[in-house]
Each structure stands twice: as structure tokens, then as C-alpha cells.
Amino acid sequence: MFCPQCGQQQATGVVRFCSRCGFPLDGVIQLLGNGGMIPVYRASDEPVPISPRRKGVKQGGVMVLSGAVIVPILGIFASYSNAAFLEILVGLAAIICFLGGPLRMLYAGLFEEPAPKRIPTYGPPAQMYAPQQFVPPAQNHSLPPAPARSPSSWRSRPTTAELADRPSVTENTTRLLEKEDRTER
């Protein structure tokens, strides 16, 4: 891997900073690991969607906790009044809250859809909202330009195509025709 700022080749792919200029290479490693795409992460103020499984477990928990409040209150009212329907209502509330709540949590845990895996989406980077006085000046993070001429200590690589040309197909055919003409004379 090469540093995008100074062009220095790094010894290993796990280096966090360039050994020559100190450029942070964490983002470069992440960029290379994702095939050249920049991951876009969710903004912190963006609401996280709740999964059906978690929603069902919460509903069951609310039923159990509300039963812990509603059933004693209804029991107190039933003890001070002689109405039979309040005693039935206390029993019905206890069954719904204390039996229905755990059953709702069990059903949600076993049969409802879990939260989707958090896979970062790739695309242009998310917009950062910061005052202009705190934004660092823009830097050119590209590789340095190639030198105009090669260094004098380096000799140019020989082209092997100049050493021996390939024979063409027409030369062999022409030679065969010339041989036939010689034998007929």
C-alpha cells in the first residue's frame, strides 16, 4: 500500500500512519477493504427503526408491569364494594396481564422478525454539519505527480521486440512460391 499524500510505500497493510509524512491511513485501509467505496453511516439524530420482535417483547413487558399496578387497584376497589363484576374484572385483568404479557413476549421472541443486520451502505460521504471556523482547510490527498524525466541512475528497460522480429505469414508463403519456381526451371 502507498500513502496517498506522499507516495511512500508502507511495509505492512496494518500501519495506522504513514512512516514518512504521518498521514492517517485508517481511512485508506477501510476504503481498500470496501472495494473503493466509502461507507455512509447513519446520523446520530436519525431515529433507529424498531424491529417487530423488540416491539412485541416491549408490549409483553408493559402488560406485565401494568398488571402489577392495575390488579391491586382493582382489588382494592372490589374489597370496598359489593359488586361481583369487580371481582370478575380483577381476575380477568390478572389473567390478561400476568399470563398474556409473558405469552406475548414468548410469541415475539420465537416467531416475529428480528432487527435487520446493520450493514453500512456505501456511497458519497454523509454531510457533516460543523461551523466553518472548525473545518480544517482542504488538502489535496492525491499522490504526488510523476517526475518529468526518469532519474539518471536508472537505465531504460530494453524492449525485447527489437531483438528479433516475428516472421510474418506472408514471408513463409512467398518463400514456398519461390522454391516452386526454382524447381520448375
Give the arrangement of secondary structure elements.
Blueprint: H1 26-33, E1 39-40, H2 52-80, H3 84-111, E2 121-122, H4 169-184
Antiparallel strand pairs: 1-2
Report a brief summary of the structure.
With 185 residues, this protein is an all-alpha fold. Helices cover 44% and strands 2% of the residues. Among the domains are: 39 residues, no CATH class; 60 residues.
Written account of the structure:
The chain has 185 residues and is mostly helical. Among the domains are: 1-39, no CATH class; 52-111. The protein has helices spanning 26-33, 52-80, 84-111, 169-184, and strands at 39-40, 121-122. A two-stranded antiparallel ribbon has the order 1-2.
Order of helices and strands: HEHHEH
**Taking all residues together, what is the mean pLDDT?**
76
Largest sheet, in brief, is:
2 strands, antiparallel
> Uncertain segments of ≥5 residues (pLDDT<50)?
123-131
Strand order of the largest sheet: 1-2
How many helices? The count is 4
Taking all Cα atoms into account, the compactness measure Rg is 39 Å
DSSP E strands, number: 2
Shape: elongated
Structural class: mainly alpha
Strand content: under 5%
Task: Please tag this protein with its features.
185 residues, mainly alpha, two-stranded antiparallel ribbon, 2 strands, 44% helix
